[in-house]
Structure formats: structure tokens, C-alpha cells
Amino acid sequence: MKVGLLLDISLTLIKARIRQSVVAAAGVTFGIAMFITLVSFMTGLNKMLDGLVINHTPHIRLYQAITPAKQQPISLDKKYSDFKNFIYSIKPRDQGKEIHNVSRILQKLRTDDRVIGATPKVSTVVFFNSGTIQLSGTVDGLDVTEGERLFPMGDNMVKGNIGDLAIVSNSIIIGKGLADKLLLDVGDVVQVTTPEGDRTILKIVGIIQFGLAEVDDVQSYTSVTTAQKLQGKPTNYITDVQVKLKDIEQAPAIAKEYAKLFDVDAIDIQTANAQFETGTTIRNTIAYSVSVTLLIVAGFGIYNILNMLIYEKMDAIAILKAIGFSGRDVKRIFIQLSMLLGLIGGIVGLILGYVLSVIISHLPFETTALPTLKTYPVNFDMIYYIIGISFALITTYMAGLFPARKAAKIDPVVIIRGK
Fold first, then answer.
1. CA count, 13 A, side-chain hemisphere, 155
2. In the predicted model, what is the mean pLDDT of the chain?
3. Cα separation, 182 vs 199, whole angstroms
């Protein structure tokens, strides 16, 4: 019964200063709404940008790096075994790009519980010929079915179907930037020259666009078989093995493990895209910082209003204490008042933030760089709404705590005597 009475008194105080109460709740509402809107939009944007890289990038890439021999001939001479040898102008060792025992490696990877899947790739640098024009580029030979399952590129297809690579022999999918430069379209043929001078005519079955100019201007895809024939290599020739993990955070540790186990070089996605991840972290930090600042400002507004309310309600506080309410009861009254303002403002803020997010998600956003994106990206993850209302309640509690403690210490005798 006492709890209900204290709550009733809190509501009465809110009604007595309805304008100030509305202003205080509106501050919380605005802070929560902007928090939800800003965080949803920024994380949606980051998720879209991450998708451009992460969805099409292996979590671990196994390959043979071109590096100088780790052990030089002078190191084998016992005469100089105790010397510190300084060797300059060491040339890379030509051991080829081929990964040996690929079938054994793939079998091992596909039985690893930490791995979603693994797929081979044949990569080579080529020249695309159009009349007297030669443009350098990269051709990646893919296991079309498995590659599309692990690293889906179908959503980035501007024209054609990626599955045609497995159906049409001597076919290729080229980047949008490359197609524009060479004035090529689906159904056309393009002449490709390897660094060794071998020339091959390939039929274009699709045009792909990732929205990254440095990729769209040079990247193209074909099947593993076509890429092997392009270089005149046998059917067991593989230059890369792409691995997708169940937990991307384990990539650095697992990459080191695979490099040692298979005696190959390995690079994880975090290392390969460190700069991109830094940008994502900075954008998230800015979004959260601005949003939290708005909520803190709203908390100061409630603090000021409650301070004024205490000074205006000195008589009421004195009467409450005179008729038997303890300082603890008075403290609870004002904390409840603050929490009610936070709860009401927070709920309205969540609704308003959701409405604004929905409006943004329906705004048209069309750019030639990202043809598959039609509206602004927004993330409606429930966790942001939980964080928003939780922070609103915490902020308003802290804003009401100090004025409530002040009200609890008021001596009713001094107030009544002063009157």
C-alpha cells in the first residue's frame, strides 16, 4: 500500500508541474529517438560496407608467397656458422604459385568443425585486348557452385548469371568498370593474353559490380577449368585455397595453425583488411558518442527540473515529513518521479526512433557504384532498442538521485518555522 501511495504522490507532483515534466520527458524522448535513428543508420551503413568486403573475401587465404629463400648458401658453410652474415640484393626464389596436395588440404579443411567450407581458386594476371588497347587485369578461376555458396556474388551481378560460368565453356564474367572501358557487353567476346604470351578468346556471360572502382576496373571471374587452360596448366594446378569459418574472430589464430600444418602461407581477413576495419570502428565510435551525449544532456535537463521542483515544493515536503513520511520515503518519491519521466520519454523515444528509421529505410538511394542498393541501409537490431531504454532509465535515475537525496535531508521544522 505504501508503494502505491508514494507512486501516487509522484504522479501528483508531475501533474502539478505538467509543463516542466513534459519538457523533461521530451528531452529524453529526443535523446532516445536520435540514438535509435543514428545508431540504426550508422550500423546499417557499416553492415552494408562490411558486406562489400567480408561477404566476398575468404576468412583465411592459403597461398604460396614469392619470397627470398630463408636459408642462403653462406649459412650452410660451417666456416661461417658462428658469424653474423649480412646479405644484400637477395632475389626472390621462383618456386611457383602452385599449392601442392590441394586435394588433401581441402579434405582436411572440410572435416574441420570450425570451418563452414573451403574452395580452390586459380588466380592470374592478364591483359585484356581490344584493338590496339591493352588493359591489365586479374582473372580468378572459381569452383562456381561452392564459391557462390561460400562467397555469394550473385547479388552483385549487373547482367547475366554467375552460374553460366559452369555451363558455358571458355566463358568469363568481367567487372563493370572494365566493361565500360572496353565497351563490352554480355554476349561479346574478349581476347585475353597471359604474361607468357598465350592468347585466348573468352565469351562474356556476365558483368559484375562491387562498388569499389579499384576492383571493378580490373577484376574478372571464370571457372577453375578455364583458368587452368588459360595458363596451360594441368587440372591439379591451384594457386589459392579460400576458407570460410564459423567464427571470423578466430581467423588470425587458425591462419597461423594452417600455415604451419600445410607448409603454405596464410593470411586472415583481419590482417588483409585492417584499414577497413579501423574505419568501421571509428564510425561506430562516433555514432555511439554523439548518441550518448544526447542522452546525458537530457539527463541534465531532468536534474535541473527536479532541483527547481524541490525548491518550489519545500512546503509539501515539510508536510509529508511532519505527518510521518521518512526521509527515505521522500527520496523514493522523487526518484520515482524521475524514473517515470525517463520511462515515458524513453518509450515514446523508442517509437519515434523506430518510425524515423523506417522512413529512412524507405528513402530512395540509387547510385551507379552500388546498383543493388535501392534505399538507405538501416539496421533494426533489437539490441539497440534495449540499450536505448536501459540508458534512458539509468540516466534519469542518476539525474533524480541527487535532488532526491537533497529533498530527503530537508528539516520540516526549519521550513514550517520559516513560514
1. 13
2. 80
3. 17
Residue pair 126/139 in contact by the 8 Å Cβ criterion: yes
CB half-sphere exposure, 186, CA atoms < 13 A:
14
Q: Which residue has the higher pLDDT, 277 or 335?
A: 335
Residues near 393 by beta carbon (within 8 Å), at least 6 away in sequence? 339, 342, 343, 346
pLDDT, residue 1, reads 42
Q: Greatest CA span in the chain, whole angstroms?
A: 105
Strands 115-130 and 199-208 come out as unpaired
In tens, the pLDDT along 349-393 reads: 899 999 999 999 888 877 665 666 778 888 888 988 998 888 778
Give the span between the Cα atoms of 62 and 120, in whole angstroms.
9
The pairing of beta strand 199-208 with beta strand 171-175:
parallel
Is the whole-model pTM more than 0.70?
Answer: no
The whole-angstrom separation of Cα 302 and Cα 98 is 68
Contact 61, 240 (CB under 8 A): yes
Asked if 208 contacts 153 with a C-beta cutoff of 8 angstroms, the reply is: yes
* pLDDT beyond 60 at 6: yes
Candidates 70, 65, 98, 371; CA nearest to 210 is 371
